[in-house]
């Protein structure tokens, strides 16, 4: 066993029995590199990464490879999910050097940590014009010994070139027309298969949210067709719920099978908010969105919830077949014969037709992913799905990365609150509360920690996205439950975040000012695929500003939003969360101002609360509690009658429980 046996990251522990003498990233490893003047072999990956496992099996487990690495390099393994700051810096270097990137990310560094050569996956033998990993190692070792000055000069040039790469792009115009920007993004919509762009195709829940906020018929059509296509596709686990990370094809047929908490948290929010915008005359589409949302929650509770109450990071793409061999996606795929064995001939044939399971297969080796065709009987579909899930649980399940990531749990808390209120599921609110208690108990000790495992926090401090996402989740939970303690905690997180991450231009860095000083300080304002740290903090600042009546936080959010105009002009498809914020803030176009809707009711899941959550525009803070509830500024003052009180700034509407009057108050232009 090498040093990784004691790591907090399950991904690092996967490499504990490699013959390579791995180090964790830290001062000890860097000191060893400086003392020995050996170059650093940096390998960055994550637990659910298929090609990371392939390279680990082919190369990192090979004693011959270790015989080259150990005497000539200081080998450092990094979990990108635990150290997104390191991942961001060295991925930027790989992209600059090669024109592309991905994981595993393989980077060679000078002893002081500057990159001079990079790539991603390397095969064990030369293949397709790609050198073998052994050839790369030998070439780098020779270059370091014989032409070290060239490597050092290359590293200096690369870091100098990238020094400004983390600054937000400058705005080009005087005023951003956010509707026109979203129209431009919509032109990348795939009208045949739904979604944006071509293969590989990723879910785009943040863009979908932006389209839902815009709300005119064209944008709603794009959003709804995208959500429907994904819900029907192989990227959606039709049996167990939840979505894979992306589709390798344009038609959503074959996914890259790993399932990530962050994707599913954001998709739960998108399907919930998408459900609200489906007209009453389309009950089939509404049922489709609700099925997807309920499937995600069921999967979260059944397969990702850890004993501490939070949610694990991911499920692997690979699992064992009946013969003990690893295969990508084997856990999720079927043949007509397997369906018949599980369901009987009649239901098996019906399932094969409904899920498009063919004799030739839609995946590989005659296997098919499950895709939902047509509009089958909902009762029969639910029964068949439950039986297939029960049968599938006899298979070897994919491995789970049990690490609890603060930011991802924050997004899950926020989405679960939304879904609980919209669909009237108090048990989902309990799931959100359990995750919030886990994060607060296990990740907070006066500073927020990035991750935990088995209730123990890692030493890695939280990043901007952690503070923003957790504060957002806490504030949303506080509002739904009328529990001001969670609002106090959200304020505490944000007040600390402003000190730790604030930049001179009003925006935010991703890593704290007192964090480890690398060759650059990461600051990525694009979404990839989660909201950027800046956008996460903006969303939390705006919600807490409304709930706590803190105009200073609203002003801070406005200053940070101004730093995102450049990314919205230049790459809006990769800034969906910034688009949502810009649309909500575009009073000149919408006439709407962010509102607080106070539901005076003892039942946080009562009819008034549910109606308000279902109708309120995104950007509205829905606050539920009995009259006189303390800790929410003046929102509950002098409000004792069971009603809904809607205020936009200094304009308040008459309290009402009438649905038509409530909709008018929520959507009135003031």
Gist of the model:
The protein is of the alpha+beta class and 670 residues long. It has 4 domains: 3-162, 3-Layer(aba) Sandwich (Glutaredoxin); 178-192 and 280-311 and 401-589, Alpha/alpha barrel (Glycosyltransferase); 332-394, no CATH class; 595-667.
What does this protein structure show overall?
- The mean pLDDT is 95.
- The radius of gyration is 25 Å and the shape is globular.
- The protein has a five-stranded mixed β-sheet with strand order 1-3-2-4-5, sandwiched between helices. Strands 17-16-18-19 form a four-stranded mixed β-sheet, sandwiched between helices.
- Helix 16 (406-423) packs parallel to helix 18 (464-481).
- 53% of the residues are buried.
- The longest helix has 22 residues, at 283-304.
- The chain has four domains: 3-162, Glutaredoxin (3-Layer(aba) Sandwich); 178-192 and 280-311 and 401-589, Glycosyltransferase; 332-394, no CATH class; 595-667.
- A hairpin with a 7-residue loop joins strand 6 and strand 7.
- The protein is 48% helix and 10% strand.
- With 670 residues, the protein is an alpha+beta fold.
């Amino acid at each position: 066993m090498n040093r990784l046996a004691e790591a907090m990251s399950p991904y690092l522990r996967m490499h504990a029995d490699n013959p390579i003498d791995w180090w964790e990233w830290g001062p000890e490893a860097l000191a060893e590199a400086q003392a020995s003047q050996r170059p650093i072999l940096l390998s960055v990956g994550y637990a659910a990464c298929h090609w990371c496992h392939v390279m680990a099996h082919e190369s990192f487990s090979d004693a011959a490879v270790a015989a080259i690495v150990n005497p000539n390099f200081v080998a450092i393994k990094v979990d990108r999910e635990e150290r997104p700051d390191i991942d961001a810096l060295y991925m930027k270097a790989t992209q600059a050097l090669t024109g592309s990137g991905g994981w595993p990310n393989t980077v060679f560094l000078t002893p002081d940590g500057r990159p001079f050569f990079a790539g991603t996956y390397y095969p064990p033998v030369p293949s397709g014009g790609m050198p073998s990993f052994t050839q790369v190692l030998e070439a780098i070792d020779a270059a370091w010994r014989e032409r070290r000055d060239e490597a050092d000069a290359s590293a200096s040039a690369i870091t100098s070139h990238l020094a400004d790469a983390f600054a937000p792009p400058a705005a080009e115009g005087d005023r951003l027309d956010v509707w026109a920007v979203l129209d431009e993004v919509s032109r990348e919509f795939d009208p045949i298969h739904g979604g944006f762009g071509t293969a590989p195709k990723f879910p785009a829940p943040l863009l979908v949210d932006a389209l839902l906020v815009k709300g005119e018929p064209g944008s709603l059509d794009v959003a709804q067709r995208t959500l429907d296509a994904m819900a029907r596709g192989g990227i959606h686990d039709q049996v167990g719920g939840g979505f894979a990370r992306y589709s390798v094809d344009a038609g959503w047929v074959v996914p890259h099978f790993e399932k990530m908490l962050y994707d599913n948290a954001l998709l739960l929010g998108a399907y919930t908010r998408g459900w609200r915008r489906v007209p009453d005359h389309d009950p089939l589409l509404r049922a489709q969105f609700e099925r997807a949302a309920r499937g995600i929650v069921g999967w979260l509770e059944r397969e990702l919830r850890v004993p501490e109450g939070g949610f694990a990071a991911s499920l692997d793409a690979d699992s064992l077949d009946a013969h003990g061999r690893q295969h990508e996606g084997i856990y999720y795929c079927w043949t007509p014969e397997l369906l018949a064995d599980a369901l009987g001939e009649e239901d098996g044939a019906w399932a094969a037709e409904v899920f498009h399971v063919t004799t030739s297969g839609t995946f590989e080796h005659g296997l098919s992913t499950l895709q939902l065709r047509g509009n089958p009987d909902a009762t029969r579909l639910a029964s068949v799905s439950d039986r297939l899930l029960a049968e599938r649980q006899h298979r070897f399940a994919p491995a789970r990365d049990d690490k609890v990531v603060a930011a991802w749990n924050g997004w899950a808390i926020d989405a679960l609150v939304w879904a609980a209120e919209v669909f009237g599921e108090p048990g989902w609110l309990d799931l959100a509360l359990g995750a919030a208690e886990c994060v607060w108990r296990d990740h907070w000790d006066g500073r927020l920690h990035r991750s935990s495992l088995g209730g123990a926090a890692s030493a890695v401090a939280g990043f901007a996205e952690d503070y923003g996402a957790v504060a957002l989740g806490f504030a949303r939970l506080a509002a739904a439950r009328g529990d001001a303690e969670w609002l106090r905690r959200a304020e505490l997180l944000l007040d600390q975040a402003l000190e730790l991450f604030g930049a001179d231009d009003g925006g935010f860095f991703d890593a704290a000012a007192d964090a480890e000083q690398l060759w650059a300080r990461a600051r990525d304002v694009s979404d990839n695929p989660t909201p950027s740290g800046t956008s996460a903090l903006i969303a939390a600042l705006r919600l807490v500003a409304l709930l706590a009546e803190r105009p200073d936080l609203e002003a801070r959010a406005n200053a940070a939003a101004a730093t995102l105009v450049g990314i919205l002009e230049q790459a809006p498809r990769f800034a969906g969360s910034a688009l949502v914020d810009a649309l909500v803030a575009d009073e000149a176009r919408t006439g709407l101002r962010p509102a607080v809707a106070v539901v005076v009711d003892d039942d946080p899941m009562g009819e008034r609360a549910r109606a308000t959550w279902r109708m309120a525009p995104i950007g509205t803070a829905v606050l539920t509690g009995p009259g006189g509830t303390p800790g929410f500024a003046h929102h509950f003052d002098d409000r004792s009658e069971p009603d809904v009180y809607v205020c936009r700034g200094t304009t308040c509407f008459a309290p009402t429980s009438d649905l038509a009057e409530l909709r008018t108050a929520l959507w009135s232009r003031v």
